[in-house]
């Protein structure tokens, strides 16, 4: 519910796509600054404890946003400050959540676990986006964001019951030394930094154009908040379908097929640039969602299989930093750029950049040839004699 509610709250407050870009960027900029810090602490502390603390901060920030909107006293600067707080929380939550899965499931079930986790997330996104659009249209953004705040606190309660291990740290290990260890592990894998570099530009184009200009197109041509909620829900349908596929399909060259998924993402941007009818845009959203989720499951599984657990959160932090570093730029420039060259032309440019970055990643041999790791299962020894049955 929250992305739709926040987008239309800002548009109702100021009517400016540029202002919406600033509010959305406010949650991304802190991630660029703090995500490496979050990665180090997620390798130092129990990862579920880091996630619980982050959820409490996010819930508190969203609760204040809801109160301001419901009271009718919200100002743009207040929304920006509160999204900064939420961005800091995400900086700690992301690397911890990416690294916690290998600690709670057997190695041979990593891909299925990632697929199930993503399925649960996207199933609630389908409901939330569809219901959120209706709630925003019927009673306003404040109530949708208030519900979002409650879900953060509920999530913290569940995560507090999880039990994870703490890795053994070397004596005299400093923050900077641990940060350097994570960087060494990141840069030593060509397939890793190449895909992250491609994602840096692709995400700038994708997130900026979809998050800022998507609601603008919806308001003008797709029946407003209700229509945009349908589009986001449709994207989530594609996520679910891909998650179901990933539960069963285990290609040997896991990253090759993951990056193939990225190549269908621009379909949604093209549909918005035209713009096509609501049913056609929704279908394009299904296709884009399928590609996004196929990449996400295979990418996370590749990281968990090829990166040692003791540095996994830090490597995930570098992955997250590279993937989001240009998103604030995309969010802040896309509105002014659309004012100069038009909304449709801006989205067309974003679609082209997104396609080029996906193709560029496939040119790297290490990306095409990275294979999944099948864990060695040691069978239990056969007893020398048959057991005597109990009488």
Features:
391 residues, mainly alpha, Growth Hormone, Chain: A, 16 helices, 80% helix, disordered C terminus
Task: Walk me through this protein's architecture.
With 391 residues, the chain is mostly helical. The protein has one domain (2-162, 183-369): MFS general substrate transporter like domains (Growth Hormone, Chain: A, Up-down Bundle), CATH 1.20.1250.20. It is 80% helix and 0% strand. The chain contains 16 helices and no strands. Helix 2 (17-44) runs antiparallel to helix 14, helix 5 packs antiparallel against helix 6 (141-159) and helix 9 (224-248) packs across helix 12. It starts with a helix and ends in a 22-residue tail after the last helix.
Number of strands: 0
Low-confidence stretches: 383-391
Going by CATH, the homologous superfamily would be MFS general substrate transporter like domains
SSE class? mainly alpha
CATH topology group:
Growth Hormone, Chain: A
Summarize the topology.
Blueprint: H1 2-14, H2 17-44, H3 47-71, H4 76-104, H5 110-139, H6 141-159, H7 175-187, H8 190-221, H9 224-248, H10 254-262, H11 266-273, H12 278-306, H13 312-324, H14 327-341, H15 343-362, H16 365-369
Helix pairs in contact: 1-2, 1-5, 1-6, 2-4, 2-7, 2-8, 2-13, 2-14, 3-4, 3-6, 4-13, 5-6, 5-9, 5-12, 7-13, 8-9, 8-11, 8-13, 8-14, 8-15, 9-12, 10-12, 10-15, 11-12, 11-15, 14-15
């Amino acid at each position: 519910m929250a992305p739709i509610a926040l987008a239309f709250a800002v548009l109702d407050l100021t009517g400016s796509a540029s202002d919406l870009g600033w509010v959305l960027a406010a949650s991304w900029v802190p991630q660029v600054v703090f995500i490496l810090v979050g990665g180090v602490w997620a390798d130092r502390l129990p990862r579920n404890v880091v996630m619980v603390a982050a959820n409490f901060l996010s819930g508190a920030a969203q609760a204040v946003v809801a109160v301001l909107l419901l009271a009718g006293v919200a100002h743009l600067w207040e929304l920006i400050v509160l999204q900064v707080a939420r961005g800091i929380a995400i900086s700690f939550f992301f690397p911890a959540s990416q690294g916690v899965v290998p600690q709670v499931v057997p190695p041979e079930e990593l891909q299925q676990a990632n697929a199930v986790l993503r399925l649960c997330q996207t199933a609630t996104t389908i409901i939330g986006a569809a219901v959120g659009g209706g709630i925003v249209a019927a009673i306003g953004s404040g109530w949708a964001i208030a519900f979002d705040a409650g879900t953060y606190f509920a999530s913290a309660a569940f995560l507090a019951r999880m039990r994870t291990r703490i890795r053994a740290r070397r004596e005299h290990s400093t923050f900077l030394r641990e940060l350097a260890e994570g960087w060494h592990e990141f840069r030593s894998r060509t397939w890793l930094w190449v895909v992250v570099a491609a994602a840096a530009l692709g995400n700038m184009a994708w997130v900026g154009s979809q998050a800022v200009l998507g609601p603008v197109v919806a308001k003008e041509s797709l029946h407003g908040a209700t229509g945009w909620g349908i589009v986001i829900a449709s994207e989530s349908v594609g996520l679910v379908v891909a998650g179901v596929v990933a539960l069963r399909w285990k290609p040997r060259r896991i990253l090759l097929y993951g990056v193939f998924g990225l190549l269908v993402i621009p379909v949604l941007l093209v549909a918005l640039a035209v713009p096509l009818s609501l049913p056609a845009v929704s279908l394009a959203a299904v296709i884009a969602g399928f590609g996004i989720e196929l990449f996400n499951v295979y990418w996370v599984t590749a990281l968990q299989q090829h990166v040692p657990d003791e540095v996994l959160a830090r490597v995930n932090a570098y992955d997250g930093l590279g993937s989001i570093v240009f998103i604030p730029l995309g969010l802040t420039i896309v509105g002014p750029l659309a004012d100069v060259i038009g909304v449709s032309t801006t989205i067309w440019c974003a679609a082209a950049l997104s396609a080029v970055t996906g193709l560029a990643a496939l040119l790297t041999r290490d990306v095409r040839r990275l294979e999944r790791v099948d864990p060695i299962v040691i069978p239990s020894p056969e007893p020398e004699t048959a057991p005597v049955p109990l009488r």
